[in-house]
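Our consortium's second objective concerns turning raw sequence data into structural hypotheses that experimental partners can test. To show how far this objective has progressed, the report includes one record in full. It was chosen at random from the queue rather than selected for favorable results. The single chain below, 128 residues long, was entered without modification.
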Amino acid sequence: MATTGQQNRQGQQQQGVQPNKTMEKRKPVFVKDRAASRNLRQTRIAERLVGDETGTILFTARNDQVDLMKPGDTVIFRNAKIDMFKGSMRLAVDKWGRIEVTDPANFVVKEDNNLSLVEYELVSVADE
């Protein structure tokens, strides 16, 4: 329901509010929440060189992933993704992905094709 200016002023006067009088502004209060920072856990990060018969790439392991793999293990990455870090590719598995240690594989890793050593540069292409 819409009210006119006259009805609004009458309502304010009945409630004890003076019309056209500015309200006093309060100063902001800033506080530091140190309790939350104490409960934060440190992120563990390690890089592992992983590969298959086509080449190798650096895998960035985070937190619990750090302890999953040992040198020589065969692993399966599900829903892995590529992250760009300082112009080079890194393999990563986020919360939607999965890492499984499995039986040894029957292939030879192609170690001379490390995709993480290739530097990429972002190039903008103008629309024509």
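The partners drew two points from this record. The chain has a mean pLDDT of 79. The CA atoms of residues 52 and 93 lie 17 Å apart. Both points have been shared with the crystallography group to help prioritize constructs.
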